[in-house]
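Weekly modeling sync, notes
Attendees: S.R. (lead), two postdocs, one rotation student

Agenda item 3: backlog of single-chain predictions. S.R. asked that every request posted to the team notebook include the full sequence so nobody has to chase files. The rotation student volunteered to paste the first one in as an example of the format we agreed on. Action items at the bottom.

Example entry:
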Amino acid sequence: MAPEESPSNVLSYILIAQDFLGVNYNSPALAAPPHLANTSTSTMSSTTSKALDAAKSSSQQAKNTLKTMTEETSTTTSSLLHHPYVRPALPFINGGLAGMTATTVIQPVDMIKVRLQLAGEGARNSARPTPLAVLRDIIAQGKVYDLYTGLSAGLLRQAVYTTARLGFFDTFMNTLKARAETSGTQIGFKERAGAGLTAGGLAAMVGNPADLALIRMQSDGLKPVAQRANYTSVIDALSRIAKAEGVTALWAGAYPTVVRAMALNFGQLAFFSEAKNQLKSQTQLSSQTQTMTASAIAGFFASFFSLPFDFVKTRLQKQQKAPDGSLPYKGMADCFRKVAKDEGILRFYRGFGTYYIRIAPHAMVTLIVADWLGFITK
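Predicted structure, as returned to the notebook:
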């Protein structure tokens, strides 16, 4: 049986609870019971006060320690981000992460776009499939996950291509801004266009092997089952293509890829930067609304300027040598000529709606994420 508590101990517990809860000691409702009224409280009050002071001191010390740790972490992070070797790399890192995020979201639309471009190859009056028909066909042949065929290649392409193009573009724009501030002038559309074209061309050359692997993986399902390569990953595709066709085959279609990238970046980055600058000066829209509106405008112009080159790039990267060693197309000009003759000029803009749906959201996600990453890494 538990020992009985003395009246003084009971009163001590009551006082401690009152102090802890901030209760008014003089409240009649909380007055000590009559049989404890004569108990001395001086010793108990002193003990309670010391206990509360110790608790407050410990709490304050814990808060100070946590504050110091937070400030030290923030200082360390800031110092790292502003390190002379890290700072120039941030636009490239942010661009790569933004592009990979967007590709993960848009990959199914890109898969449908590629299948539309390869449908009816070499025939002028072939049946024109719709995006929904292509979607149904892909799902009927396999699983929903087949829409993500080539995702590893797409992510590698973004890790290389978008890292380079956004990194180069931001680097060029920062240099142009510094030069404009020094001379007291403003950056014009011509400078933005030049930065976008140059950044796109340089990045496309670096990213062509991953782009080629992506096309091969996405078009593999169109072949008869016996002729499919059944690539397991982008590394598998790159190694097998290089072994069977030579390392230089990884840069097949590089010329239209570069031209397409320059056209796309001219439409996307130059028009995005110009549209955002105009919206900022001419409207009262929020920063987020400006970014989304500018990216939608940029997506349209990027699609319009780049789709013919994207179409030719897809055809050139998909082609493989026949048993006699010949190829369907000798190069970009030959592909343009044969498609225009055999399939009609409008074939270059087949799937424009799907292409825009792929480009615009991809641009929006990429540019919004890049803006956000740029903000938190200032």
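Discussion: group reviewed the output briefly. The chain has a mean pLDDT of 78.
Action items: rotation student to repeat for the remaining queue; S.R. to check formatting next week.
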